[in-house]
Amino acid sequence: MPKELADDYGLAKIEDTKQIAAPNLPYQPCNPKSYNPPIGLIGCGGISSQHLNAYKLAGFNVVALCDRNEHKARERQQQFYPDAFVTTDYREVLKRADIEVVDLTPHPADRVAMTEEAITAGKHILSQKPFVTDLDEGEQLIELAQKRGVKLAVNQNGRWAPHFSYLRNAIHAGLIGDVVSVNFSLHWDHNWIVGMPFEDIHDLILYDFGVHWFDLAACFFGQREAKRVQATTVRGAGQKARPPMLASAIIEFDGGMATLHFNANVTHGQQDRTYVAGSRGSMESIGPSLSEQSVTLYTADGFAKPNLQGTWFLQGFHGTMAELLCAIEEDCEPLNNARDNLRGLALCFAAIASASQGVPQVPGLIRKLPIR
Q1: Which CATH architecture has domain 175-309+338-357?
Q2: Helices (H) and strands (E) in the chain, counts
Q3: What is the C-alpha to C-alpha distance for residues 204 and 368, in angstroms, rounded to an integer?
Q4: How high does pLDDT run on average in the chain?
Q5: Residue 51 CA to chain centroid, in angstroms?
Q6: For an engineered disulfide with 40, which of 99, 201, 281, 353 has Cβ 3.0 to 4.6 Å away?
Q7: Alpha-helix runs per DSSP H in 127-254
Q8: Where are the domains of the chain?
Q9: What is the pLDDT of residues 301-317, one digit of tens each?
């Protein structure tokens, strides 16, 4: 395109702008100043190793491990916290007066009753995601936690993945103005689920996986109202897993829009890209995986490429627990509080209902996870 025409349309190539120093943003997890309470972890399944690895490196004080299968709890004990108490009964953890915080990792159906009992026992809670499968049950748990004076947070660890945390903090700092559009585009291989119980979840991509991105969409747009969601799912040609591995969703916000596109059946040339456009600038994060991402910030001053350190799982699981501990220490609401989490869940439920019924849905009207 001729330069004169590019100038007429306000277009510029990246080489026509100057590189500037990347803003120093607090994207890394921040530990509490002095509060390091005894923590009990309930549920020692596969993902618990990521929790415990991050906690050990952060210096958190895990004193109890619980799983219905004692072997799993013993295995985690030997791997991470050799002195931790081991039990197969989660109530043994809840009745210990010294334990102030519990990390609940079981699936939602098993976790609701545990969460209620933990709140009644006066424990602060980090709940695995998805928080609940019924928004009304979530509201009830939140109200109970408020009455008992305990903090209830959700392990939306994607918020502390280095690239997403930098984008999130840049938005909060006003570096790109008001968010106008957010585009998530993921192409990866999710076929590790073949032969596992995850194959029984028809809307696995929008639900168990996509819940991270619905949460991020809600987070990036702040408190702006989400008005409508439209989504679709498709079985890809040649895919191995039973659930549809292609899914897309469009979310209409007040003054903006988010689009989510997932292809979970890509074996070569995988790519994960996020683009956020604002009224005064834009940001892009791109790479071959969730943990290999390069971020660029574009403003009127030029473009910046921060050198980010860390990975999704390490910083993500560290960040969710650290945020809860800081909130307890400072007696404030954690960023990942359960009430805020319901906003992303409402988007997720609306998207699944839309994909099932073929029509747009209003977030918040679909109160329960649609099952099909």
Answers
A1: 2-Layer Sandwich (3.30)
A2: 10, 14
A3: 16
A4: 94
A5: 14
A6: 99
A7: 135-148, 162-172, 211-220
A8: 175-309+338-357
A9: 999 999 999 999 999 99
